[in-house]
Every structure is written in structure tokens, then in C-alpha cells.
Design goal:
By secondary structure, this protein is of the alpha+beta class. About 30% of the residues lie in helices and about 25% in strands. The longest helix is centred in the middle third of the chain and has 16 residues. The chain starts with a strand and ends in a 15-residue tail after the last helix. This is DUF3037 domain-containing protein.
Length: about 140
């Protein structure tokens, strides 16, 4: 298979915006050539609570789930979910000063587009040595 070029941003939780401390909790990946727009999210509640023991995890989970819903598009994804995939990616990765933020957008290449999200989760989100059972939440 030819190499696919993709763009991605790391999803960060910044519990106390004024302190600018964050935990990486996921990635959003867009590959125009394959039509891929996907979010991989793995919230490690203990790590987030280390920065803010009083954070509302239920609300945080709901907002993170909305990112994945917007990526999928279609019914239930609201007006942003009705936009073309590339426009949804740009909307999701726009700079914000909120508890959920995105890193700057980066570009990569892969011969296996189906594995991009999991590979990036391994590199950017998962704690080395902690092990995982595939994509999903850790909380």
C-alpha cells in the first residue's frame, strides 16, 4: 500500500487553565486520501486527578466523547458533525482556552492508515510500561 499522509493533534486535558499543566488523553487524526477522521481517547482518571483532585470527571468524559462523535459525523453529531470531514478536523483542532485543548497540528506518514490512531496513542498518550488492551478508556 502506498504511504498515506495524515494530520493529527493531541487532545490535552488542562484541568486548571491558569497553571497550563496538562495530560495527553487522546489524538484526532485526519487522512484526506483515505477519508479517515478519527479520535482515539484514553482518559487516565488518576493522572488527571493528580493535577486537579476536584475535577468533574463525568462532565469531562462527556465532552471528550463529543469529540469522537463529531469525528464520526452523521446523526447525533450536531451541526459541526454535518460539515465535511476536513472542516470538522479544523474545527476540532482550533485553538481554545478551555479545559480540553488540542496541540498544534502535526503531519505524519504511514503505510498502514488503519493503525495510525493506535500508534499515536502509544507514542503520545499511553504511559510506557502500563500496558493496554487496545483502544478504550482507562478509567
Amino acid at each position: 500500500m502506498p504511504t498515506a499522509i495524515y494530520d493529527y493533534a493531541v487532545i490535552r486535558v488542562v484541568p486548571r487553565v491558569e497553571r497550563e499543566e496538562f495530560i495527553n488523553v487522546g489524538v484526532v487524526v485526519s487522512c484526506h486520501a483515505t477519508g479517515l477522521l478519527e479520535a482515539g481517547i484514553e482518559l487516565d482518571a488518576a493522572r488527571v486527578r493528580a493535577l486537579d483532585p476536584h475535577i468533574d470527571l463525568d462532565t469531562l468524559r462527556a465532552h471528550l466523547a463529543a469529540i469522537a462523535t463529531i469525528c464520526r459525523g452523521g446523526p447525533g453529531s450536531g451541526p459541526i458533525g454535518a460539515l465535511p470531514a476536513r472542516a470538522r478536523f479544523h474545527w476540532l483542532t482550533a485553538r481554545r482556552s478551555s479545559i480540553i485543548q488540542m496541540s498544534p497540528v502535526h503531519t505524519g506518514r504511514s503505510a498502514d492508515p488503519a493503525a495510525i490512531v493506535d500508534t499515536l496513542l502509544d507514542r503520545m498518550v499511553r504511559v510506557a510500561g502500563a500496558g493496554h488492551a487496545g483502544s478504550g478508556r482507562r478509567d
